[in-house]
Amino acid sequence: MENPCxxxxxxxxxxxxxxxxxxxxxxxxxxxKIVAQKKINKDDDYFKGHFPGNxxxxxxxxxESMAQASGIICAYNHGEAQDIxxxxxxxxxxxxxxxxxxxxxxxxxxxxxxxxxAVKTSVECVVNNTVVxxxxxxLSQKKGA
Amino acid sequence: MEQRDEIDLYERVKxxxxxxxxxxxxxxxxxxxxxxxxxxxxLDSIDALELVIALEKEFGIRIPDSTVGKRxxxxxxxIVNYIKENTSGKSVQ
Lengths: 145, 93
Prior knowledge:
The complex is a heterodimer of chains A (145) and B (93). Chain A is of the alpha+beta class. Chain A has helices at 9-12, 59-78; strands at residues 24-29, 33-39, 84-95, 104-115, 118-127, 130-142.
């Protein structure tokens, strides 16, 4: 499978706007580690409600960005680019610092183990060299068309 | 393997299962031959992955692929047998 760094994000993920939470792949290490990036748009609609006058990126969307980065590395690791990976389990997630409009998320994911259709990843999000969130996810593979 | 060691191994495996899949039942309630998946304990594919990880962490034993996994992750009995097969001549730490 071609190096994801050279590809447009829409070739790597089935997600589309407004639910695409990775902009690009920054680097791949070996076949099981990825660093990706997501710039938080100040105009994103959800800031109107989360929270009025005090915009903060919802933690669930940070988890989603970590899941999407995991999905890319899971597909690359397994060499099946067309496969889709669904988020199946979230564990030990900690949100250590708030993320604000205009921040750039550096999203890291590492494949820890794979068994059958299930893949476990260790994930971390960093803003300005500070870890803002971390945890472990399990994604389930669904064969692509 | 001495009988006492075997009892200890069964207990360790049951405790490992409870921890790995966050089972809401005491380890003593798991029968040695009870099926782990389907109509037995009702574990699923995510639990299988957690058991594979736990076996490697707890006993240093790898399950190389899902074919072996389907043979090993059947019951406590089959897990214990796999551990014994893969640690024969070595002490189970």
